[in-house]
Design goal:
With 111 residues, the protein is mainly α. Helices cover 73% and strands 0% of the residues.
């Protein structure tokens, strides 16, 4: 899925000479596909790309935190969720959503 994004936006750049940022809907669709495949390394790369394109958005922090959480690095994931509270919301990723994710980790693991 991440290769699809790179190819799509690379083609746009090559054909039209326009360097477009990845659209939110593309990030969300690719993120959902990656989560479905449970490819946590690729989700981390997607998070890094999202942060690179818009460091003020919650999107990159969410993908990085989710990849950490699923790989058992729950304390780091909790901190990553918490670090995004004051960033711009993106799609379904809201401040309340990120707070709930961090609180569930605290509750489940006693942090």
């Amino acid at each position: 899925p991440l290769a699809y994004l790179n190819k799509k936006y690379g083609t746009i750049k090559n054909l039209y000479g326009v360097n477009l940022p990845v659209r939110l809907n593309d990030f969300l669709a690719v993120g959902k596909a990656i989560e479905h495949k449970e490819n946590w390394d690729e989700l981390e790369k997607l998070g890094e790309l999202a942060l690179e394109q818009d460091p003020d958005s919650m999107l990159g922090s969410y993908y990085l935190a989710k990849s950490l959480e699923e790989r058992g690095k729950t304390k780091k994931a909790m901190r990553m969720y918490e670090s995004a509270y004051d960033k711009k919301e993106a799609g379904f990723i809201t401040a309340d959503f990120m707070i709930r994710k961090a609180e569930l980790i605290k509750k489940d693991f006693g942090y």
